[in-house]
């Protein structure tokens, strides 16, 4: 490995300075403010506040609605990450086999990632709206009593599909890159030895995609916890009866709707700790099963 030699000692610090400044402004400063507000009790207008210590944390951890939102978040995150990664891997494998028009297919599959979360949510809401949705009409015509506005399980299925569809394109990009990095000679040798397509995939392709899969597992977990707010807000608004109210949506609901600023700040701190702990767990234990070539 060749070491990079800079012309002077100050240049490296200038190169990393923009990223450090952005991190301080958009991560550490908001995080410190949330931690400070989580130990305060403020009136809805922010005119008066008082120090309450860990009272806000004690209140939310003993609140049944918060624990229900935690359970909803776990189910939603697992389902979204699994569906988004599974479909993306399937599409990447299929696109890798295309001989003509490969670039066109890949470009078309990447387009959904450019759609804003709120627009993606509205798209799926219109398609599955029980009053005027085309797909909702087909479901009802085939005997499925589809109504996500009243049925919590159906609402959860709808937001999972919408959130996963938004993330499939991102996963697709990395899986395609991972497939291109696999030496074709390995697959040709396995084919000569008589290994069929499914066996070649599970014994050669999938293990070599382990680094990519692990990276996407971390990214999709963070995405499901944080970046799906716009989709949930547009599709269900956390309903019906809080069936799709995840932790990040409850932070918004309690802070900006109910104006319980201290509780909302405490929830954001707990959410941040959960995501950091989950990511650390993945790097500590899951990465052990990843083999880098």
From TrEMBL:
InterPro entries: MetI-like, MetI-like_sf, UgpAE/MalFG_permease. GO terms for biological process: transmembrane transport. One of its GO terms (cellular component) is plasma membrane. Keywords: Cell inner membrane, Cell membrane, Membrane, Transmembrane, Transmembrane helix, Transport. Residues 70-282 form the ABC transmembrane type-1 domain. Signal peptide: none annotated. This is sn-glycerol-3-phosphate transport system permease protein UgpA. It comes from Neorhizobium alkalisoli. The lineage of its organism: Bacteria, Pseudomonadati, Pseudomonadota, Alphaproteobacteria, Hyphomicrobiales.
């Amino acid at each position: 490995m060749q070491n990079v030699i800079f012309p002077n000692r100050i240049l490296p610090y200038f190169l990393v300075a923009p990223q450090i400044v952005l991190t301080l402004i958009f991560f550490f400063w908001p995080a410190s403010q949330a931690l400070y507000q989580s130990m305060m009790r403020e009136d809805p207008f922010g005119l008066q506040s008082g120090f309450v210590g860990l009272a806000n944390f004690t209140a939310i951890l003993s609140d049944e609605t918060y624990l229900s939102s935690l359970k909803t978040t776990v189910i939603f995150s697992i389902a979204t990450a699994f569906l988004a990664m599974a479909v993306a891997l399937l599409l990447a494998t299929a696109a890798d086999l295309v001989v003509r028009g490969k670039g066109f297919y890949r470009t078309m599959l990447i387009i959904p990632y450019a759609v804003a979360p709120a627009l993606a949510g509205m798209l799926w809401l219109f398609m599955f709206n029980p009053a005027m949705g085309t797909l909702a009409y087909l479901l009802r015509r085939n005997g499925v009593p589809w109504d996500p506005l009243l049925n919590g399980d159906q609402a959860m299925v709808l937001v999972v599909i919408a959130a996963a569809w938004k993330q499939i394109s991102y996963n697709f990009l990395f899986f395609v890159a991972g497939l291109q990095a696999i030496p074709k000679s390995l697959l040709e040798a396995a084919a000569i030895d008589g290994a069929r397509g499914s066996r070649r995939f599970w014994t050669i392709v999938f293990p070599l995609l382990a680094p990519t899969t692990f990276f996407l597992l971390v990214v999709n977990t963070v995405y499901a916890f944080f970046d799906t707010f716009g989709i949930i807000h547009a599709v269900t608004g956390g309903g019906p009866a809080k069936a799709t109210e995840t932790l990040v949506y409850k932070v918004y609901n309690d802070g900006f709707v109910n104006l319980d600023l201290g509780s909302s700040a405490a929830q954001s701190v707990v959410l941040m700790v959960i995501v950091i702990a989950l990511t650390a767990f993945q790097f500590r234990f899951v990465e052990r099963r990843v083999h880098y070539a």
